[in-house]
Structure formats: structure tokens, C-alpha cells
Amino acid sequence: MSPRTVDHSMRKVLIHPAQELVGLRNRKAYLGISLNNHISRKPESLTTIVQWMRSHFKQFDVLVGDYLHRHNVQFLDGLPGSQAVHHAMADGKQIMTLIREILDANDCRDVRLISSYSFYNEVSFRSRIDRFKSMIAADPHFRSLLEFAIKVFLQRKAPALLDSKAGYEHSLAYQLEELAMFELLAERGYTVNVYPGSQLPVMKSFVTGELPGVSRELEQLTLVELKLRPTP
Q1: Which residues make beta-bridge pairs with 182?
Q2: Which of 116, 124, 174, 210 could link 205 by a cystine bridge, Cβ 3.0 to 4.6 Å?
Q3: Whether pLDDT at 210 is above 60
């Protein structure tokens, strides 16, 4: 089934699996903000997104990939582990401050900012990642989706690292940690995942039923892709 396209103030809104946007209004949503996404540093774009979220969801929160970003800092910028963590968290703090200001200015004081760091002390977090790792060997389609996303990301961000072990391992770890976070959020009632850009191929495959048995929680999600009009 093709994703549903909805025209709004955005250039395009895609919903996976296809359904009417109005049907999502009463469900609990979260907006994912990646520090590697240029939109996270543009106040105008963030304002547009926050206003759109407020208009279309009664309840939503914002997930910021601060600690998660350490993977990008390590292999893209070449910083060692501890420095990468410090850089990622400092960068995340600045972006969270910006988002908080925009939320408060747009009648969204009830919206929570969720740091990706908060998930790493969850009792089940590591076991979830280990389960996904075991599925890489057990499910060739699951593995191929993860590897496709790694290839696309490295071709776009760091072509020189396309065949590097570090690029592969950090990109894979990023995806697996993200999947574990999404599972935990789903268990907390967040059933709509909104992202300003393209959703991961593996996530689209979960919600369209192409990966049965890998994650029941992720299969139940609805994914929304926000495509913004280019800013001058």
C-alpha cells in the first residue's frame, strides 16, 4: 500500500501505512529530532514543525538524539569516545534550549523534551539491542534494510568512509539504539513517530508488515514524514 500524501503548510506529508491524518489526532505522538539533520538548527523550520504538530496532535513530545549523536561525532569528526560524548551532549543542550524556546512561544509548554540519553539506563535497553543484533543474522531482509540505510547515509555524509569498519559499526549501532528507543516509547503509549525528513527503511518495513516477528511494538506504529519547503 502506498503512503498517504497530505498537503498542508509543508511541501508534503507522508503517512505509513496510508491513512487519514485526522485519524491520528487523538493518538500520542513524538517528534524525532536528529542532531545530524540540518533542520534541527533552523529556528524557522523548527517553528513551522512545532506549529504543525500542535495543529495536528492533542498530545506530543519531542525526542532529541543528543547522546545518540556521539556515533556521528566519532566517525565523522574523528573524536575519541569521551570527547564525542561531551561534544554531542553539549550540542544537544543548545538545540534543546532552542526547541524549548520555540515550544514555549507557540503555546506548547506542556510538551516534554526527551533526551536520548535517558534511555540508556533502562533495564531492558541493552537486551533489546542484543535481540535486534541476533535478528540481523536470523533475518536477511532485516539485515539488508539496515545495511541499505548505512550505505545511503555514508554516501551522502562521508563517501570516503563507505567501506570503513568504523563507519559501518557506528551507523549500525545508531540504528539499533534508535530501534530500542522507539520500542520503549511505543510501550509508553507513543504510537505515532513523526520525523522532519525520510523515515528509516527498516521502520517503514516494520509498519507495512514486512518484518513479522522482529518487533511487535514497532509493527503497531504509524510513521509520519514531514517534507518542508526549501527555505531561502
Answers
A1: none
A2: 210
A3: yes
